[in-house]
Amino acid sequence: MSEPVTELLFQRDAYEREFDATVVAADGTRVALDRTAFYPTGGGQPHDTGVLTAGDRRWRVESVKRMGPLVWHTLDADAPEVGTQVQGALDWERRHWLMRTHTALHILCGVIWRDYSAKVTGGNMEPKRARMDFEFENMRADLVKEIEDKVNKEISAARPISVEFLERDAADKDPDLIRTKINLLPKDISEVRVVTIDGLDRQADGGTHVASTDEVGTFRITNYKSKGRANKRVEIAVS
User: Fold this and answer.
1) How confident is the model at residue 44 (pLDDT cuts 50, 70, 90)?
2) Backbone angles phi, psi at 192, to 5 degrees
C-alpha cells in the first residue's frame, strides 16, 4: 500500500478558496488531507488560515506545515478521524493580501535583477508588508526612490503572471531561475515550479501570486538598511 501524499492545490490555482478533501492522517489536533488549498509556511511566506467542516462540525485551521509528502493542519480542537470527508475554506482576505505581497516581492526582485544584477540573500513577508535582502554594495535614498518608481511602473503595466512546471534536469540547465545567492531547491524534487511575470521575470518559486501585476496595488519602499558590507535590506508595503 502506497504512503499517503497531499495534493497541493495552491500550486496550480492560487485562487481556489474552497475544496473537498479526505483525512489521511490524524494526530491530536493535527490533521493531514489528501488534497489542500492551504499554503504551508515556507519560502518566507507564512501559512494560510481558515476552516475545515464536516457536517455540523467545524474546526479553525490555526497553522499549516508541510512534513515530507503530507501537509499537516493544526486545528483548534481534536482532529476528525482518518477517512472523514471534509470541506476546507481559506481566510481569503489574508490569502489575497499574501498573494499581492508576494507578487510585489517578485516584481522588486525582477527589477533589481534586470537593472542592477543583484541576487537575493533573504526575505520574509506578512500580509501587506515584507522585506527582502539583496547582495548590494551600496544603497542610498535616490536609488531607493528610483527602484520604487520602476516597480510601480511594472505594476501599472498589468503584466500577466503564469505558472509552469519543469523537469528538474531542464530547470538545472537554466541558472537564472534561481535568484537567491544560495540554491534552496530541495535535491529530492523531480519537478520545479516556475513563476513568470511576462516581459520582466522568470524564477523558481513555490508560493502564491496574483494573475496580473496590476492586482498588487500601490507599492512603497518604507525603509532600507545595511545588513553587512554587501547585504542591504529593503522593507516594503502594499496597499
Assistant:
1) very high
2) -115, 130
Q: Is residue 86 located within the same domain as residue 100?
A: no
User: Which of 90, 115, 145 corresponds to the end of one domain?
Assistant: 90
Copy the grid coordinates of residue 155: 505594476
Asked if residue 61 lies in contact with residue 38, where contact means CB atoms within 8 angstroms, the answer is: yes
Q: What is the pLDDT of residue 20?
A: 98
Contact between 205 and 179 under an 8 Å Cβ cutoff? The reply is no
Residue in this structure with the C-alpha cell 558590507, named with its chain if needed: 229
Number of domains in the chain: 2
Question: 164 and 49, same structural domain?
Answer: no
pLDDT digits (tens, 9 = 90+) for 151-173: 999 999 999 999 999 887 776 77
Q: How far is CA 17 from CA 14, 52, 55, 172, in A?
A: 8, 12, 19, 33
Same domain, 86 and 102: no
Three cell numbers written together for 236: 516594503
pLDDT at position 216 over 80: yes
